[in-house]
Design a protein that fits this description.
The chain contains four helices and eight strands, in the order ααββαββββββα. Helix 2 packs antiparallel against helix 3. A hairpin with a 4-residue loop joins strand 1 and strand 2. The mean pLDDT is 94. With 137 residues, it is α+β, with helices and mostly antiparallel strands. The chain has a six-stranded mixed beta sheet. It has a two-stranded antiparallel ribbon with strand order 5-6.
Length: 137
Amino acid sequence: MAVDFPSVLIPFYREALTVKTGGNPTPVLQRVLSDRFRSINGSETKDKATLMAQVEGFWKLIPDLKWEPQEKLEQDNKAVVRSIATGSPRGPFMGLTLDGSRSFRIDTIDIHTVEDGQILEVHHLEDWATALRQLRG
């Protein structure tokens, strides 16, 4: 089964991870994430509710957050997406206290597994070390 990129992954990046004035990421994430969803990186695994709360926090902390897919590879029910994430945090962020005057631009890689038209899991890497260097100046 092929990944339905336009109806599942485009909203994930452009309507949930990317801040929209007057928007809300939670209804989008409710729709595109499976109830059995898992977000997995090298240090932790998050469930759907935890990721939704984290994204809501990012929307408040990084009001200009953008997650722009640059390239995708698909096979069966998997999609690898290379993106660029940008933003200017305002407040406490990874040990720094920021006022929005500095921004970051980082590379990200996600490997999504899609089942029954929803994201079942995503393995992800973000280059937060580069973000911290950029934000420190």
